[in-house]
Design a protein that fits this description.
- The complex is a heterodimer of chains A (254) and B (248).
- Chain A has 254 residues and is an alpha/beta fold.
- Chain A is built from nine helices and nine strands.
- In chain A, the strands form two sheets. A six-stranded mixed beta sheet of chain A has the order 5-6-7-3-8-9, with helices on both faces. A three-stranded antiparallel beta sheet of chain A has the order 2-1-4, with helices on one face.
- In chain A, helix 6 links the parallel strand 6 and strand 7.
- In chain A, helix 4 packs across helix 5.
- Chain A is globular.
- By secondary structure, chain B is mostly helical.
- Helix content of chain B is 71%, strand content 0%.
- Chain B starts with 11 loop residues before the first helix and ends in an 8-residue tail after the last helix.
- The chains are: A alpha/beta (254), B mainly alpha (248).
- The interface between A and B is large, with 64 and 50 residues.
């Protein structure tokens, strides 16, 4: 398993962002769904080793990220697209991707080819020499995805990767996700259930800092059977049914 | 693999729309010339190549020479402090700038980066080359450059000697100490703490030895020890950040 999470919590002051998550994931694409404030981004940031858990254990790519050397090994094989991608406006797309390839400690001889491939895979070949300040929001998002995949990561973490992408780009991106998921573990946090339906083999649904469902998209859809859950698509109805059941259960316990 | 294969296949209008988009994207992809033949490659400049050899890390070298929005403001502020320090020292006959500046620098290092400063801070927190190490190497480079400028100014005019010695040389040594402690202890906070504590120790021990509060920045006999500390600490930092052979 590339991701092993056991009893992980994360607290920011008085706010309990993640309240005891257990999760395992091997190669494939795992969609992380949930309403705003469910804890998806906090969980993803812990998986990206950006912040440590408040409690619980975390093993990534078979290693414990608490040790400096192990964390560095993980980071060399990690790709991460944060929700708010910061960028240096004066860099070109290629320079931006190369910069992060260097800081991921890729062997220098591999970098030109890897940068080229990442830019090509995200459809930015025509903009490779364009300054980031001149790009649209969707293109910046794709530049962010390019830096995340430049090292051909074994663990790829993407927070709202399709935000700002047009339908054509989203379709291309889903194909890229499926391709990456053949070998790597890809965790995608998203609000868009159609992305999950089209690209993810597994889906985890978070609410109030906990995972309230983990299964296939088909299993999530089936949760709506026999309910009057709201939604325009089958997956949305499954999503609503699971959330309603989880909240009813939480209400009954409190 | 079709669009809905990974999860549940999309049906109805949604499915047809997805299939049509897949077809369009696939056709466009086939029509586009392959980029594999147009490999992008940037040639590092001489400074970057030299820094890469010195630091034994192409990533650190790139981070050092690019230094987005950091290098120029830092150099300008260094020049301003140098000029203001010279004026204050000449006016009061007390080297207060030399005594206080290293502590200000340590605080500056601690606050010179973060989510509000570095646009890619969140991303840099997930990288193999530590963002804090990048910061400390940048700081060391700026101070070392300032020290070189100060020494050159001292060679040209005796008026710059006091400021150069009292401010830049000790600060460079303290920065190198902070870098070495940070890399060995793997904690930038420990590095900054070591820099501040080291400076306090030097100031107090020089006061005890000479009876003069400002001896740490006015005693020319300390020049060689400062330079020795700088060289040793840089060596320690380079050793601690070396690239393992199997990765290079």
């Amino acid at each position: 398993m590339n991701v092993e999470v056991a009893g992980v919590t994360r607290r920011f002051g008085r706010t309990q962002a993640v309240a005891g998550v257990d999760l395992e994931a091997g190669p494939g694409v795992l969609g992380l769904l949930g309403p705003n404030g469910a804890g998806k981004t906090s969980l993803l940031r812990m998986l990206a080793t950006v912040i440590p858990p408040s409690s619980g254990t975390l093993r990534l790519l078979g290693r414990d990220p608490r040790g400096y050397a192990r964390r560095k090994e993980i980071r060399r094989r990690l790709g991460y697209l944060p929700q708010n991608l910061g960028y240096y406006p004066g860099f070109t797309v290629a320079e931006f991707v190369e910069y992060f390839a260097l800081l991921k400690e890729m062997p220098p001889a591999w970098i030109p080819g890897a940068v080229t491939a990442a830019i090509e895979r995200t459809g930015l070949a025509d903009q490779a020499r364009a300054k980031l300040r001149t790009l649209s929001g969707g293109m910046l998002r794709r530049a962010g995805i390019a830096q995340a995949i430049v090292n051909d990561p074994d663990l790829l973490l993407l927070d709202e990767p399709t935000a700002g992408l047009d339908p054509e780009q989203r379709v291309a991106f889903r194909a890229l996700l499926r391709d990456l998921g053949e070998r790597a573990t890809v965790v995608v946090s998203t609000h868009l259930v159609e992305d999950v339906g089209a690209a993810c083999g597994q889906v985890a649904l978070m609410d109030a800092g906990r995972i309230v469902f983990h299964g296939t998209p088909a299993e999530l859809t089936a949760r709506a059977d026999g309910t009057d859950a709201a939604g325009d698509a089958p997956l949305e109805r499954g999503y609503s049914a699971v959330l309603a059941a989880a909240r009813a259960g939480a209400g009954a316990r409190s | 693999m079709n669009a809905g294969e990974a999860g549940r296949p999309l049906g109805g209008f949604e499915g047809r729309l997805e299939a049509e988009l897949v077809r369009v994207v696939t056709e466009r992809g086939a029509a586009r010339p392959g980029l594999a033949t147009v490999t992008w490659q940037r040639q590092p400049g001489q400074v970057e190549r030299a820094a890469g050899r010195l630091l034994r890390s192409p990533g650190l070298a790139r981070a050092l020479v690019t230094t987005p929005s950091l290098l120029l403001p830092w150099l300008i502020s260094s020049a301003v402090v140098l000029a203001a320090g010279a004026a204050a020292t000449l006016g009061t006959r007390e080297p207060w700038v030399g005594l206080l500046a290293p502590v200000v620098a340590a605080a500056g290092i601690a606050y010179a980066y973060g989510p509000g400063i570095d646009p890619a801070w969140e991303l840099s927190r997930s990288l193999a080359v530590s963002d804090r190490l990048v910061l400390l190497v940048r700081a060391l480079a700026v101070f070392a450059l300032d020290a070189a400028l100060g020494l050159a100014a001292s060679a040209a005019s005796g008026a710059a000697v006091g400021i150069t010695f009292g401010w830049l040389v000790p600060m460079t040594a303290l920065c190198a100490l902070a870098l070495a402690v940070a890399t060995v202890s793997r904690s930038a906070n420990a590095g900054v703490a070591a820099g501040v504590a080291g400076w306090a120790l030097i100031v107090l021990s020089e006061q005890a030895a000479t009876g003069r509060f400002a001896a740490a920045v006015s005693d020319s006999a300390l020049l060689l020890p400062y330079l020795a500390v700088t060289v040793i600490c840089v060596g320690v930092a380079l050793y601690a950040t070396r690239i393992p052979r199997e990765v290079s």
